[in-house]
Amino acid sequence: METDADRQICAGLLERLGLSPMAGRILVTLSGGELQRVVLARALAQQAPVLLLDEPTSALDLGRRVDALELIDELRRERSLTVLSAVHDLTLAGQFADRLMLLDQGQVAAAGPPASVLRDDVLTPRFGPGIHVMTAGDTLVVMSRRPGGPSHP
Prior knowledge:
By secondary structure, the chain is of the alpha+beta class.
């Protein structure tokens, strides 16, 4: 049975994740993005010292992805959490992770700070020649180019 403290934790997370208006809805009526935020709230409500996430932003639009990762990062700092997350969006991973581990067929292909992993010479052998890493301000942006597609200056 949940306690008053449990309900308070859940209410706070619902508020922080923008889910309060949906609190009375049945799960099957939620959109994919709403459900993803509920799953994140459920994981955070456990208040464990380690948070394991598998594609925590997969069903979210771009704005909600950044919001969710900002919240996770904020909670990580507040609660001294260790967060281990599988993320396929390498640009977002590089923006939010202190360390990255790139796996190739189950083996560690590269590990370290984002700048040492998000490099053309590291990514191209794993993803093909269409991958390119650019710098936009202080952000590493991983993009793909169509092979043989039109080139634009």
